[in-house]
């Protein structure tokens, strides 16, 4: 299954787990944006929608502002073919003390259920999202919640490089997202 990597504000620099995944996984593709430092919701949405259309039924692996972007896309285009989403360290664009001014254009944060299997990974000391807010969002989105404890923003600055547990979480979500195969196919009797 292809994995679409959706980065957040300022992109994922050297050593970031998303960048490492792109280097290691031949089935991973980055959603590129015009400007990583000056995000514009509609421009970013167009780029994400084009990537989802180019790689249908992919697993989305989003970090920070990228998670918010996917929630907006799911609200606007619930018909798009997305196998599932691993949403890591969502950014609280609604919180004036948490979010930088340059991401305010992404508010309000959508809280409708997401139309695909989703896992939210959150930290208890993320400066960009209070844990209780992350718990609320996971519930609103119909997502599983993984509590990483005191893990900061789950980025290079908080000590996350390759992040093997992230791979395991993505693999588990991928297995959950695959359509069930008929029993005849499982037994090797299908075409």
Model regions low in confidence, pLDDT < 50 over at least 5 residues: 180-187
**Beta content:** 15-25%
- What is the level-2 CATH architecture name? 3-Layer(aba) Sandwich
Through-space gap between termini: 21 Å
Structural class: alpha/beta
CATH topology (fold) name:
Rossmann fold
CATH class: Alpha Beta
- Round the Cα radius of gyration to an integer and report it: 16 Å
Number of structural domains = 1
**Number of continuous helical runs:** 6
Organism: Pseudoxanthobacter soli DSM 19599
GO molecular function: hydrolase activity
Pfam families: Ser_hydrolase (PF06821)
InterPro entries: AB_hydrolase_fold, RBBP9/YdeN
Could you characterize the architecture of this molecule?
Helices cover 33% and strands 15% of the residues. It contains 6 helices and 6 strands; from the N terminus they run βαβαβαββαβαα. A 6-stranded parallel beta sheet has the order 2-1-3-4-5-6, with helices on both faces. The longest helix is centred in the N-terminal third of the chain and has 14 residues, at 41-54. The protein has one domain (3-186): Rossmann fold, CATH 3.40.50. The model is unreliable at 180-187 (pLDDT under 50). This is Alpha/beta hydrolase family protein. It comes from Pseudoxanthobacter soli DSM 19599. One of its GO terms (molecular function) is hydrolase activity. Pfam families: Ser_hydrolase (PF06821).
């Amino acid at each position: 299954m292809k994995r679409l990597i959706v980065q957040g504000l300022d992109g994922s620099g050297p050593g970031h787990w998303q960048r490492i995944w792109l280097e290691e996984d031949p089935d991973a593709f980055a959603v590129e944006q015009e400007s990583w430092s000056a995000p514009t919701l509609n421009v970013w949405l167009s780029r994400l929608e084009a990537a989802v259309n180019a790689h249908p039924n992919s697993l989305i692996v989003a970090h920070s502002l990228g998670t918010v972007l996917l929630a907006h896309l799911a609200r606007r285009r619930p018909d798009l073919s997305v196998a599932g989403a691993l949403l890591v360290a969502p950014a609280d664009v609604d919180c004036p003390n948490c979010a930088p001014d340059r991401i305010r254009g992404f508010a309000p944060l959508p809280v409708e259920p997401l139309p695909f299997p989703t896992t939210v990974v959150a930290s208890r000391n993320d400066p960009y999202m209070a844990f209780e807010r992350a718990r609320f969002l996971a519930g609103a989105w119909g997502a599983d919640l993984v509590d990483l404890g005191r893990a900061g923003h789950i980025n290079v600055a908080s000590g996350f490089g390759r992040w093997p547990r992230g791979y395991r979480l993505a693999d588990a979500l991928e297995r959950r997202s695959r359509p069930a195969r008929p029993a005849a196919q499982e037994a090797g009797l299908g075409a």
